[in-house]
Design goal:
With 63 residues, the protein is an all-alpha fold. The chain is built from two helices and no strands. It is flat and about 45 Å long.
């Protein structure tokens, strides 16, 4: 994961990769086993993240 805000990125004022990992670990520990979590090696604001979100929502949509 490469950050959750414009300042939580490489060179950003609040960049903290270790804290991102703490967040992910806590989420994975706290959620039910049937909830799938996908951690991307991308910043939340890049098109790769947007594509992944759209594809996931499309896969979940009833047909």
């Amino acid at each position: 994961m490469e950050g959750f805000s414009h300042q939580d990125r490489a060179g950003g004022l609040i960049e903290d990769p270790a804290l991102r990992q703490v967040f992910l670990d806590r989420v994975l520990k706290s959620l039910r086993q049937d909830i799938v979590v996908t951690a991307l090696d991308a910043h939340i604001s890049v098109s790769e993240t947007t594509r992944e979100i759209i594809e996931t929502l499309d896969d979940l949509a009833p047909r």
